[in-house]
């Protein structure tokens, strides 16, 4: 079974757009966990346009009520992000090579180029007992490098898979991701996946049981406009079960 971690960034975006605490991040997180989700993900960006650093602290306190469930904090490891993560001590930290002005994540780490910057960051996080994940393109040749710099897992960046899913390239592109996932497993890494996954495409990606966890937020929130939040979370759990 692949675990579902629900990214609540879009809940934060709705909340922040009106200057009120509605919808409430903690209420939605609790509701999601009660439905059976394995974890909660947030990706606080420097401008805090959706999830905020305060959310990180508050979600950590909430997760204490749910033993065995996890908090995953994603982001670019600048000084403020690392300060917050090292204080909060989430179960998992996913490092993403975002420019501060990016609309959304759009590429994985070039570990060969960035290894000198990544090694000390990963070491600091692991000293706190935080599982470290590197956001990676589905290139099997780079998985061993992620292990070499100290990562515990990789998160495969799945936009290319999502784009190919409605086309006749669905099968070969999925196979490319399966090969990358197996390369990560062979290197001693766990495998997560995320970005543009939805109710239509998530099952195929996870069907070969190489993916430990998926992080889904944008599509889940959009699908909830049609089906309702509870129904959508339940549908994902059924797809991944």
Automatic annotation (TrEMBL):
It is found in: Cytoplasm. The active site is at 43 (proton acceptor), 74 (proton acceptor), 195 (proton donor). 1-deoxy-D-xylulose 5-phosphate binds at residues 45, 50, 104. It catalyses: 3-amino-2-oxopropyl phosphate + 1-deoxy-D-xylulose 5-phosphate = pyridoxine 5'-phosphate + phosphate + 2 H2O + H(+). The record marks 155 as: Transition state stabilizer. SUPFAM superfamilies: Pyridoxine 5'-phosphate synthase (SSF63892). Its EC number is 2.6.99.2. It comes from the Bacteria. InterPro entries: Aldolase_TIM, PyrdxlP_synth_PdxJ, Pyridoxine-5'_phos_synth. Keywords: Cytoplasm, Pyridoxine biosynthesis, Transferase. 3-amino-2-oxopropyl phosphate binds at residues 7, 18, 196, 217-218. Catalyzes the complicated ring closure reaction between the two acyclic compounds 1-deoxy-D-xylulose-5-phosphate (DXP) and 3-amino-2-oxopropyl phosphate (1-amino-acetone-3-phosphate or AAP) to form pyridoxine 5'-phosphate (PNP) and inorganic phosphate. Homooctamer; tetramer of dimers. NCBIfam families: pdxJ, PRK05265.1-4. This is Pyridoxine 5'-phosphate synthase.
